[in-house]
Write a structure and sequence with these properties.
Blueprint (H helix, E strand, L loop, with lengths): L1 H18 L2 H29 L3 H4 L1 H8 L8 H15 L8 H7 L18 E8 L2 E7 L5 E4 L4 E2 L2 E6 L3 E9 L5 E9 L6
Helix pairs in contact: 2-4
């Protein structure tokens, strides 16, 4: 116990000495000053835009010069963030193997319920009209029944609409290269002749 306490004290002292390094202190000061300038510039832009006094309107160009080019909270910064989000939306995650995720199938990472129903493995058994809307009765491969309404999520999509004799599922599919696209799967109600 005594050795552990001594070792902890030595490590704590070494960390305190390292934190008091002049380079680290100067780096922290520079970061705080930059953050303070950005904050002041953003507050100057907001207050000058709110007031229409000529003395405050003259401060706007100086405040804009202090802000970085694509600072968050400015129009250019927000536009930059939207463009980068659109660009990254169709990219595949490099840390997820497309082979493993495709081999997983509908049961991978799914505990049960409607969210585990794959569009290609269900069949439509009936449609019920209620005062809340249409309800589709579907069964999976294990012949277990589920009740789906419009906009209910399933494993690889959601229920787009339910009509008197069919159900349309909007399915999200992924090709071999990881590109995602959507397609509509129509499930028809086939009633045998009596």
């Amino acid at each position: 116990m005594k050795r552990t306490a001594i070792m902890a004290m030595v490590l704590l002292g070494a960390a305190a000495m390292w934190a008091q390094s002049p380079q680290i202190i100067q780096h922290v000061r520079n970061n705080v000053q930059t953050a303070q300038k950005t904050w002041n510039a953003q507050q100057g832009v907001v207050s000058s835009a709110a007031a229409s006094a000529p003395s405050q309107a003259a401060a706007v160009p100086d405040a804009n010069k202090l802000l970085p080019k694509n600072a968050v909270g400015t129009a250019a910064g927000e536009e930059h963030m939207v463009e980068s989000a659109k660009r990254d939306a169709n990219r595949r995650d490099p840390f997820l193997s497309p082979v493993v995720t495709r081999m997983g199938g509908p049961g991978a990472g799914c505990a049960g319920g409607k969210r585990c129903l794959a569009a290609d493995s269900i069949s439509l058994r009936g449609i019920v009209r209620s005062h809340d809307g249409m309800i589709a009765v579907v069964v999976n491969a294990a012949n277990k029944a589920y009740f789906l309404r419009e906009n209910d999520p399933i494993f690889n999509g959601f229920v787009a609409r339910i009509t008197d004799d069919s159900m349309v599922l909007r399915e999200t599919v992924q090709d071999v290269l990881g590109r995602k696209s959507t397609r509509d799967v129509v499930k028809k109600l086939f009633v045998p002749a009596v």
